[in-house]
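dumping the sequnces here before i forget
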Amino acid sequence: MALIELKHVVGGYGGAPILNGVDIAIEQSDIGVIVGPNGAGKSTTLKAIFGLLKVMGGTITFAGEEITNSLPDRLVPKGLSFVPQEKNVFTSMTVEENLEMGAFTRTDDFSDTMGWVYQMFPILREKRRQPAGELSGGQRQMVAMGRALMSKPRLLMLDEPSAGLSPRYVIEIFETIVKINGEGVGILMVEQNARQALAFASRGFVLANGQNRFTGTGQELIADPEVARSFLGG
Amino acid sequence: MDELIFFINRVLISGTVLGSIYALGAIGITLIFGILRFAHFAHGDMMTMGAFIAFVLAGVLASAGIVTPLPTGVVVLPVAMVLAAIIALGIDKSFYAPLRQRGARPVTLLIASIGVTLMIQGVIRLIFGSGTRSFFADETKDIFRIDMSWAGAQRPISVTEPQVIMFVVTALLVVALHLFLTRSRLGKAMRAMADNADLAQVSGINTALVVRVTWVIAGSLACVAGTMLALDVALMPDLAFNIVLPIFAAAIVGGLGHAYGAIVGGFLIAFAETLAVFNWTAVLRPLNAVLPEGMALPPNLSLVPTEYKLTVAFIILVITLLARPTGIFKGAST
Ligand SMILES: Nc1ncnc2c1ncn2[C@@H]1O[C@H](COP(=O)(O)OP(=O)(O)OP(=O)(O)O)[C@@H](O)[C@H]1O
Ligand SMILES: [Mg+2]
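..and the predicted 3d for all of it:
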């Protein structure tokens, strides 16, 4: 059974729909990567899953349970987590407080999860008493991912985690994503560094105009001459 | 020496009293702005309302023949705070929440809160009339006089019992608020939502709960501030409406959305006001002895006449907005 499944999802921000029937399905063992031109509706797809905009048609199921139009405070306890592209840390709060906010929905002891996050991002342990707003872009991205991991998600959704990062950090973030996936967390991410991301994706989705254009394994998409020509810059 | 005592009584004590009241009011305004992003104009009237709730409860206590060592207005305060918090929640649910749900802009909410101002004042006048009342009609207001004759002063330092209680209560509430915001899960969630409401929602924070907590804190602190003001001066339907502007100035000067800023801003505005209307001749009078023949200090030497006290808050506000628009602490205002 798919961990997350979107069936012909239609949705938008009140006006004309932005998503005109998006289909996505991934397993918990998968790294799913959504690529596509600017304005294709990639971010909108993630927001639709997370209840941040109105889904007008189609269904979204998570682990067999329909979650269409559920709000984050219901979704996070079910095992979904989302790292938005921008403004994804609480700048006035310390790194540790940011992580604590990720665990808001948990009532159990989350110190072991925090230890796990610090193990994943050792630099955050060093900086844990610093306001997140004082960190570099790459470190902020780690705080954002750490925050999202604090709820112990089964599915981690990331919107352009490598945006604005130096090449060295891009590789580091991608490696960490693969590592997180290796620890049993399903990944669904949007990426502009399409070729690089599809290289480690077990599932790839090319979106254009709010619709699927191509779907396959990452390698299949990279190998497809039409995908390469139209969406991966040759 | 007497001049110094006069200064202590008129500036230090009065300024601290006023500062406590401004600070408690401004904390509510700043928290509401941080969480709900609108200027809650009716906050002064929530203070007045809180004072009237305490007044009624004190009356109930008195008519039951219960005599307490502390002023009854203080004894009933915890219950009054609870009632004020419940009413604040009710006001939000009936007036502001429906507007928020329709995605109303901050200015719409501001205008709605002006409506709430008129409504609260109307209800108070309907029930209590427009006259002035006192908490101390049937009990005496104790005044502590600290004898300073050992220092060669004839005047004592004098401070009333409600004033002393107010210092203690304000200090306790500020410490409690600090611990809440920095130690508790909900307090941190409140800061998170003020920092970045969208991300707070995405993190699964129960934002509706945070909004309710905000009203509980703002409403109960407003009740304390209003009651303290009424205990210090008198109780009337426009009690706090008259000081809502300096309170807003305090919140803005401190940095909107920033609780500690509101406290600093409250004391800053209060001391600026007290110092500005203080008659410096009273302190400088000894200079008359050394001034040349024919020159004497004028009988009244204050920077601002008392009736123009409000302008002080405005001047500080304008300077802040020109020089440092985000306030002393970096607030959410732009
Ligand atoms: N909050 C919003 N309200 C209204 N329209 C929006 C909103 N956010 C995005 N849109 C519109 O929806 C469309 C798809 O936007 P989306 O952000 O999903 O694109 P994207 O595929 O993520 O592109 P990019 O690569 O630029 O991030 C765009 O036309 C955009 O203008
Ligand atoms: Mg996007």
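The longest helix of chain B spans residues 2-36.
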